[in-house]
Amino acid sequence: MMDKAGMNQKVQQLLEGEVASMEEMHHPNIIRLFERVETLSRTYLIMEYAGGGELDSFVNARGRLPEHEAKQLFSQIVSAVTHMHQKGYIHRDIKPENIVFSRPGKVKLIDFGFAQKCDRTDTLTDFFCSPLFAAPEKELVHYSGHKVDVYALGVLLYFMLVGTVPFDGESIVELKMAIFKGDYRKPDYMSAAASHIISRMLDRNPDTRIHSDEIKQNFWLKEAHYPKQHAQFSLSPNMEDLEKSETVRRAWNKLNDYGISTEMLLDAGQHGVCSPIIGIYRIVLHQEQGSSNKQKHIKTTGHNASVTSEKNQTKRKPKKQLKSRSKTCTLL
């Protein structure tokens, strides 16, 4: 929620950039934007719920994470950031407070207020980032946006494994000096492989710093599982997706059951994220995507009988399901 009274032109530009970037993302580890609601005094962004707490609090409560657990979480974050970069966006504010748990063991990247469209060859001049996660090149006139995200990932992984950030100081000046020098403590309990990948991400020279898509190939992450991006459906209903995708057809059928006709869906598509009908469509589509991914996972692990049983239960109890979900129609 944002108060319009406190919005200057710069804040408005950042808000538009946040919405534009989230509209492009289709990844299970990136928070999903459902709807934008405008009132006379406020702007609301209706997003996917992830109430499991921040990574910052999770690590602080435990002191530090064992490498196998950090690897499981970090691979999800790397997958999300790589997806952003492949889509032509950078985040520019990667930090533990912007990583939240949707459920135990699953995290999502949030807060795209500083996100910006940026190709790998582009250079930027304005810099947004928490000072503790800022790359040394922030002092330069121009910098590579993709590489500052990679540097922040290095600080993030160090924090997960050690419980503190690699660089600190009593003042901003001392912090900048520590970052510029690049010297940090490497605990004895940290494996050589973990130390190596951190050093590649914290390389002071952005030209030799590892790329985001190269991080996945690093030895330390060789056994990590990387979530796949969601199928690339349009976030507004259209006949092309309806004809080619079973997931989209299920979403349309549910909305028809809710009393939202095909004509209403197509008309609402013209208003995009600002339409309440589109908001409901995106919520249902997101649920169906999650259900489809779960079914595929069950099949690949050899539990086809469970899938069949679940489908049969769905067919036997359609009225009960609709009754339990019909309250969402009140949002319209």
What can you see in these coordinates?
The protein is mainly alpha-helical and 332 residues long. The protein has two domains: 53-221, Transferase(Phosphotransferase), domain 1, CATH 1.10.510; 234-299, no CATH class. It contains 13 helices and nine strands. The chain has a three-stranded antiparallel beta sheet with strand order 1-3-2. It has a two-stranded antiparallel ribbon with strand order 4-7. Helix 9 (246-257) packs across helix 11. 34% of the residues are buried. Keywords: ATP-binding, Nucleotide-binding. It comes from Steinernema carpocapsae.
Key words describing this protein structure:
mainly alpha; Transferase(Phosphotransferase), domain 1; 2 domains; three-stranded antiparallel beta sheet; two-stranded antiparallel sheet; 13 helices; Kinase-like_dom_sf; Protein kinase domain-containing protein; nucleotide-binding; tau-protein kinase activity
- Quick one: overall form? globular
Helix fraction by DSSP (H/I, runs of at least 4) = 40-55%
Largest sheet, described in full? 3 strands, antiparallel
How many strands?
Answer: 9
**Amount of beta strand:** 5-15%
Gyration radius, rounded? 22 Å
Q: What's the rounded overall pLDDT mean? A: 84
Query: Can you say what the CATH homologous superfamily of the largest domain is?
Result: Transferase(Phosphotransferase) domain 1
Stretches with pLDDT under 50, minimum 5 residues: 297-332
- Summed up, the helix count is 13
Q: N- to C-terminal separation?
A: 19 Å
Query: What is the CATH domain class of the largest domain?
Result: Mainly Alpha
CATH topology of the largest domain: Transferase(Phosphotransferase), domain 1
Total individual domains: 2
Strand order of the largest sheet: 1-3-2
Structural class: mainly alpha
CATH architecture of the largest domain: Orthogonal Bundle
Oligomer: single chain
